[in-house]
Write a structure and sequence with these properties.
The strands form four sheets. Strands 9-8-10-11-13-12-17 form a seven-stranded mixed beta sheet, with helices on both faces. Helix content is 41%, strand content 15%. It contains 25 helices and 19 strands.
C-alpha cells in the first residue's frame, strides 16, 4: 500500500475536527465514535506503524474526556504519550495523522508546540501528576476555574515520582483529577507490589460482591434524613478504605473512586460528569485492556505495544513476506543479551537489573536462564541504579541495562551512590545516540558528556558487535571503577563474531587505517559511517587516517600523540552532543599539549533534534557518510566554506 495512504474515517468521525464537534453528538452516539476511532487507529498503524496497544486501550476514555471537559481550557495530561493517538485524532490532526513519527511529520507523543490541546510534553513516564499539580496550582494562583486531569497508566504509577506527586497533591488539596488506567502493562507486564495490590482487589469476586451490597445499603441510609446522610457519608468513606485500593490513595489525601470499567464509554462519561462537581484531589481507578478491540494485540500485549511494518488489520499477520536474502545482523541489544548470559554462566556473581525494559534491553534471556539473578524493578531508574550499587557493595557484579534517555533520570544516583563510592557497576547503555522515530524525548545524546565528568567512571563505546562482546567481558572482570558501555538502537554490522571473549585493554583504541594529512577519530558504531565515507574518498585519491578510539574516558593519549605527530588536522565524530563529549575530550587534550593542530568536532549540535529515521537524522546533523566526506574535503581544501 502507498506510504501516503490515508484511511477513510467513519461517518461520525469524519465530521469531528475538534472536541467541540464531538460535543454536538448525543451521549448514545459515543460508542459508535469509539468504534470508528479504534478502527481508524488500526487502519493507520497497520500501514504506517507506530505505537498501538496503549492507544487502543484508552479509546473510550479519550472520547469521554473530550466530551465532558472543555479542552483545551481544561487541561488533560497524558502519561506516557504513546496512549494519545486517539487524543491527537480528535483534536484537529486526523488529516495529518499519516505523517505520525515520520521525518518532519507529527510527533508520536503529545508536544506543546504541535497543538494547544497537548498541554505537556510526555515521552517519559510518571510525570503527569507532577505536571498536573503544577497546572492546578497555577490556576489557583490566577483565580481560574478550569479543570486539570492527569491520566497515568498503572505501569507509570510504579515510578517513584508519581508517588512523590500524589503525596504533595494530597497535602496541597488543589482541585485535580488523576485517572489511574489499570491494564497491568507498561511495555512488558508490570511487576511489583503495587501491581499485586491492584490486581488482587480488581479481580476479587468477594470484594466486588461486598462493594455492591455495601453501596446498596448506603443508598438506603442516605434517603433517611440529614443526620443519617452524614452517618452514611462517614460509613461510606470507612468502608471504601477498608475494601478497596482507596485505602492507599485516601491515606495520601485523595478521594478514591472505582474501580470501574474503562471500556464503558457511557459509564465513564457519567462518572466524569459527577467528578467535575467534586472539589479537591480525586483519583478515578479504571480497568482497561491494552490492545482492546484488536484480538492479536489483546493476546500478545508486549509484541503489539508498537509495530514498525505493515500487517493485516484482521489477523495481524505481516503483509510483506520476509525477503529471502542473507540473514539480518542481530540488534546490538540482542548481542548484549546473549553475551550477558554467556558471561553469567561462567561467573555466578553476575546479576542484571532493568527498569521495566526486559524486552527493549534484551534482558529476557538472562531472566529466563537465571531468574534469581535478573531483576525488573519497574519504572524506577533511580532505584535501579542504587539497587545495582547495593549489589556491587556486597561483591556482586551488577549489570544495569538502561536506555540512555532513561539513565538521565538516575544521574544523581550514578554520582552519589556509584561514582563517589567507587562501586564497579557496569552500565549497559542502550539506544545511545539519535534513536529515530521516538524523537527528542528518547534520543540518547548526553550520556558521554554527563558520565565523563565523573571520577571513577570508564566511558566506552564499541564500533561493532565483536567489540561489544569483548567490552562486556572485560567490564565483568574489572573492579576498580564503574564502567559505561554505550551502543545504539538498531542492527549491528553483521560481521563474523568469534565465540570466545578477549580482553580489551583499558583506555586503548585501535588503528583502522593510516592515511595522510587528516585523521578521523571515531567513537562507537558511528565509525562505520567513516568506513563508508573513506571508500568513496579513496576514489578521489583522498586518504584520511581512521582511528577507532573506543574510550572517551580514559582517552588513549598515546594514540592521540601518534596522530599529533603524523597528521595536520583532526576530525572527531560521535553520535552524541558536541558539548562536553568525546570530541571535547580530545580537544581538551590537544590544547593541554600545546599542539597547534585544529580539531573539528562532529556530533549532534546544541539544539533539539526532532524525529525521523536514524539515517535521516544523522544526515540532517551532518554525521552521515555524506557529512563526513564533506568535512574531510574541507580539511583537504577541496571544499571551501
Amino acid at each position: 500500500m502507498d506510504e501516503l495512504y490515508k484511511p477513510e474515517p467513519g461517518s461520525l468521525l469524519k465530521d469531528i475536527h475538534t472536541p467541540d464537534d464531538l460535543k454536538q453528538l448525543k451521549p448514545e452516539q459515543l460508542q459508535e465514535v469509539c468504534d470508528e476511532l479504534r478502527q481508524f487507529i488500526i487502519d493507520m498503524v497497520s500501514v504506517h506503524g507506530g505505537h498501538f496497544g496503549a492507544s487502543l486501550g484508552v479509546v473510550e476514555l479519550t472520547v469521554a474526556l473530550h466530551y465532558v471537559y472543555n479542552t483545551p481550557e481544561d487541561k488533560i495530561v497524558w502519561d506516557v504519550g504513546h496512549q494519545a493517538y486517539g487524543h491527537k485524532i480528535l483534536t484537529g490532526r486526523r488529516e495529518e495523522f499519516h505523517t505520525n513519527r515520520r521525518y518532519q511529520g507529527l510527533s508520536g507523543f503529545p508536544k506543546r508546540t504541535e497543538s494547544e490541546y497537548d498541554t505537556f510534553g510526555v515521552g517519559h513516564s510518571s510525570t503527569s501528576i507532577s505536571a498536573g499539580l503544577g497546572m492546578a496550582i497555577a490556576r489557583d494562583l490566577n483565580k481560574g476555574k478550569n479543570k486539570v486531569v492527569s491520566v497515568i497508566g498503572d505501569g507509570a504509577m510504579t515510578g517513584g515520582m508519581a508517588f512523590e506527586a500524589l503525596n504533595n497533591a494530597g497535602a496541597l488539596k488543589s482541585d485535580m483529577l488523576v485517572i489511574l488506567n489499570d491494564n497491568n502493562m507498561s511495555i512488558d507486564p508490570n511487576v511489583g507490589a503495587l501491581k499485586e495490590y491492584l490486581a488482587e482487589i480488581t479481580t476479587s469476586k468477594t470484594f466486588n460482591k461486598m462493594r455492591d451490597e455495601i453501596y446498596d445499603l448506603l443508598g438506603h441510609f442516605k434517603s433517611a434524613g440529614d443526620k443519617m446522610r452524614k452517618v452514611a457519608s462517614k460509613l461510606e468513606r470507612a468502608m471504601t478504605a477498608a475494601i478497596t485500593p482507596g485505602a492507599l490513595f485516601q491515606a495520601l489525601g485523595f478521594k478514591y473512586y472505582g474501580p470501574i470499567d474503562g471500556h464503558n464509554v457511557d459509564g465513564l462519561r457519567r462518572h466524569l460528569e459527577d467528578l467535575k462537581t467534586v472539589s479537591g484531589p480525586k483519583l478515578l481507578h479504571i480497568v482497561t485492556v491494552k490492545g482492546k478491540g484488536f484480538a492479536p494485540a489483546e493476546r500478545e500485549q508486549t509484541k503489539w505495544h508498537a509495530q514498525s511494518s505493515p500487517f493485516d488489520k484482521i489477523t495481524g499477520q505481516p503483509l510483506s513476506a520476509p525477503k529471502k536474502t542473507k540473514e539480518q545482523p542481530p540488534k546490538y541489544q540482542d548481542v548484549f543479551g546473549q553475551a550477558l548470559v554467556e558471561l553469567a554462566e561462567e561467573n555466578e556473581d553476575i546479576v542484571a537489573i532493568t527498569p521495566a525494559m526486559p524486552s527493549g534491553s534484551s534482558l529476557w534471556p538472562m531472566m529466563n536462564r537465571f531468574p534469581d539473578r535478573a531483576f525488573d524493578v519497574s519504572i524506577a531508574e533511580q532505584h535501579a541504579v542504587t539497587f545495582a550499587a547495593g549489589l556491587a557493595a556486597e561483591g556482586k557484579k551488577a549489570f544495569a541495562a538502561l536506555y540512555s534517555t532513561f539513565l538521565q533520570r538516575g544521574y544523581d544516583q550514578v554520582v552519589h551512590d556509584v561514582a563517589i563510592q567507587k562501586l564497579p557497576v557496569v552500565f549497559c547503555i542502550d539506544r545511545a545516540g539519535l534513536v529515530g522515530a521516538d524523537g527528542p524525548t528518547h534520543h540518547g545524546l548526553y550520556d558521554i558528556s554527563y558520565l565523563r565528568a565523573l571520577p571513577n567512571m570508564v566511558v566506552s563505546s564499541p564500533m561493532n558487535e565483536q567489540e561489544l562482546r569483548d567490552m562486556l567481558y572485560t567490564a565483568s572482570e574489572y573492579n576498580e571503577a564503574a564502567w559505561a558501555i554505550r551502543y545504539p538502537r538498531g542492527r549491528s554490522t553483521g560481521m563474523d563474531v568469534r565465540k570466545e571473549f578477549h580482553d580489551v585493554e583499558l583506555g586503548k583504541g585501535r588503528i583502522i587505517s593510516e592515511g595522510e594529512k587528516v585523521a578521523i577519530l571515531s567513537f562507537g558504531p558511528i565509525g562505520n559511517y567513516v568506513l563508508e565515507a573513506r571508500t568513496e574518498l579513496e576514489k578521489e585519491e583522498i586518504n584520511p587516517g581512521h582511528f577507532d578510539m573506543r574510550f572517551a574516558k580514559p582517552l588513549d593519549t598515546e594514540l592521540i600523540d601518534h596522530v599529533l605527530a603524523n597528521y595536520e588536522k583532526i576530525i572527531t565524530i560521535e553520535d552524541g552532543t558536541i558539548l562536553g563529549g568525546f570530541g571535547s575530550a580530545v580537544a581538551e587534550y590537544v590544547v593541554e599539549k600545546g599542539a597547534g593542530i585544529p580539531v573539528k568536532i562532529m556530533g549532534v549540535p546544541d539544539r533539539i533534534v526532532e524525529h525521523g529515521t536514524q539515517r535521516e537524522l544523522h544526515d540532517e546533523v551532518g554525521i552521515g557518510p555524506d557529512g563526513i566526506m564533506e568535512e574531510v574535503k574541507k580539511a583537504y581544501g577541496v571544499l571551501v566554506d
